[in-house]
Predict the 3D structure of the following.
Amino acid sequence: MRRAPIFQSAEAAEEAFYDAMRRADLEAMMTLWADDDEVACTHPGQPRLVGLDAVRASWAAIFAHGAVDARPTGVLKHNGPMLAVHSLIERVTVAGQSGAAEVGCVATNVYVKYPSGWRILLHQSGPATDEPAAPSAATVLH
């Protein structure tokens, strides 16, 4: 396994995260994750994965199909001294039979600061809708 780089900020870790996706680099991806039994990752439309082994297996399966052209936009940040939460839209280019299309995913990335730098604790992504839904008693899940 590759030696983990030291990220001086959550933003630097996030930039490396999306770079690893665009290069389908599993080893680079896994150096970004916190060494914690409770790391969690939820890919769009998939169940929550907990633990480094499950996270690694999921990225290996994704990268087996090639790189993921995901670009973060509209990042909202809450950065503290030891924890950072980023809410953003991922612009993902998806190749299909009729050519490439861009889809949006709403994502939350949570970073934690260790003596060895900032690491990902949680990545959660799901399909974005074009228009925000008006909440109603029938659709509110939380």
Remarks:
- Helices lie at 10-23, 26-31, 52-63.
